[in-house]
Structures are given as C-alpha cells and as structure tokens.
Amino acid sequence: MNTLVDRFGRRIEYLRLSVTDRCDLRCAYCIPEGFKGFEEPDHWLTFDEIERLIRLFADLGLKRLRLTGGEPLLRKNITDLCRRVAAIPGIEDLSISTNATQLAHMARDLKQAGVTRLNVSLDSLRPEGVERINGRPVLDKILAGLDAGRDAGFRPIKVNMVAMRENADEIDDIVAYCMEKGFVLRLIEVMPMGDTARKMGYVDLQPVKARLQKRFGLVDTVLSGGGPARYLGTPDGGFTVGFITPISQHFCETCNRVRLTVDGILHLCLGQEERMDFRTLMRGGATDKEITEAIRLAIDLKPERHEFTEAPQKLVRFMSMTGG
Ligand code: SAM
Fold first, then answer.
1. What's the gap in Å between 227 CA and the centre of ligand 1?
2. I need a surface site. Which of 2, 56, 192, 212 has the fewest CB within 10 A?
3. pTM of this structure
4. Which tens digit of pLDDT belongs to each residue from 94-111?
5. Mutate which of 187, 188, 247, 314 for ligand 1 pocket (most atoms within 8 A of beta carbon)
6. pLDDT (tens digit per residue) in 36-86
7. Residue 45 falls within a domain, yes or no?
8. Ligand 1 mean position, distance from CA 285 (Å)
C-alpha cells in the first residue's frame, strides 16, 4: 500500500481542494478590504485535470477530500465534479465547506452526488451581524440552507463560527441554536491571514472553552473526522462543540492535510509559503508517473508548523485564495 509520509512522520491522507476563489460574501476576516475581483477562470483546473490529480493522490493513499473555496457551490456544475471525485477508488469521504447561501436548492443533489458531510459557516444569528461580518444580508438564506442540508440527510452538519470581538457575545446563542437543530458547533480562532484578518479582534478560545464547559456541563468528547478540533459535548451525546485554536494552542504536530488552489497550486501549510505548481506540470504534458513523483517531492516540503504567533505579518495570502 502506498503512503505519503512527510519528514516529520505525519501521514498525509487529507486534501482540501479549492474549486473556485469566487465568493458571494465579503467576510471581513477572509477577503481583503477594497477587494476588486477574482482571477480569471482560464487559470482554473478543469474537472478533467482535478479528477486526474485526485486519482493520482488517491493512488498514494489520499482518503479524504474536502471541496472548498471561495464558495464551492458557485462553481458551475459542481455536483458533476462531486460525482466524479466521489467515485475515485480510495476516496472514502467527500465533504464540502460552504457558506450555505446556495444550499437550499442544492442540498439534495449534493447528497445524491456522493457528498458525505457538510461544514457551514455561520458567524452571527443577527441579520445585521451577518451583514457586517460577512458583507451581505444573507442570514435567512444561510438558515434555510442549513435546514435543507439537514432535511437532505447530512449528518453531522458542522457549523463553523470564527470567534472575534465582533461576535463574541453571540457564542452562547449559537450554542443554543446548534443544540436545538442537532448541529455540531466549531469555534475557530481568527488566523492573521492578511491585513483585514489581522485587524479583527482576536478572541482566545481557551477561556471560552472553560466557561462553556461549566455553563453547559460539557465533558471531553472525541469526534471522528481527523481534524484539529478538540471537542466537548453534553454527557448524553446530544450536542458537541469543537475548538479550533491555531493561535492559542496549535495542532501542527497532527496536521494531516495539504491544500490545492483552484489554479492548481498545492500549498503544504496554511501559514507558510512552501508550494508546488501542478497546473503548469499537467499542462506541460507531464506523465502520471512524473506527477506522482512531484506529489512525493511536494510532501517532502511540508513544513513542521505555522508561525502565526511568532510572525503574524509573514503571510500575504488570504483564506479565500488558499481554500479554507
Ligand atoms: N465559502 C466556504 C465557507 O464559508 O465555508 C468555504 C471557504 S471559507 C475560506 C472556509 C472557512 O475558512 C470558513 O469557515 C471561514 O470562516 C474560515 N476562515 C476564513 N478566513 C479565516 C481566518 N482569517 N481565520 C480563521 N478562519 C477563517
């Protein structure tokens, strides 16, 4: 059995694949202020190119694939891509990160196309909060999308809330909402990716975790998924909340993922610059064997850890470009 293991002994089995860098929202921490437009689609990998690359990754032991962006549901014919990559031998889990604005009319088709899990961004339950943080008045659409995802049978649905000074007073309301709906909540510390995100008021989730644990009587819980969140839950298992704490308690030693941008650049770390250009390679006529070799070389470049705390100015790349 082929495996991809980096220099630090970490087995790489997980790829986050950005299928578009476009998004219909303007989340203050994700897209730079004054942002004018997105790159032209002729740079984007085609579905054929994506399928080929994922097949070669899967031959090397890739098991889990997450489609992200930008907003992945804005990529034309995304359900066709889902069907194609879900059918690749070795891919056991196909998930999507979405802002849910398009989910109400797409949830069923995505489920039928083989998507197994959904992560949905929700930073506020107040209409004006969503408009301020996410840049568009779309709370109703998001909530309708979440309901449609649940009705289509996605379990669990994970709700991602980036915790900032701007919405810290809403954490308990979002806990209550997720408890009622049966969603898993994940609270995320804002990462200093670009000036806009650096300006957001960082909230340390360690005290929040201690407070929620006490208030709701939560106990340590394990949730499968291979991700970095540390989970707490109600003793009856009815509600689970995860804490993704890249700043206050980084989790690089267990990082099992790499990220591919829509234009075919493989990033080895969210917070570092190591990368490999697979679009140029594929369009230059590389054989499957040469691409497989390049994947191995790229994995060898994976750095030990990010430096968000020591060097927050270092990164000039936004989450919307890399694929969150
Ligand atoms: N549009 C999709 C969505 O909303 O899930 C997928 C892309 S979005 C970039 C993926 C995730 O990255 C979202 O949960 C978003 O909140 C998170 N994100 C973006 N910028 C971030 C930052 N600077 N720090 C922490 N999380 C961030």
1. 15
2. 2
3. 0.90
4. 999 999 999 999 999 999
5. 188
6. 665 547 889 999 999 999 999 999 999 999 999 999 999 989 999 999 999
7. yes
8. 34
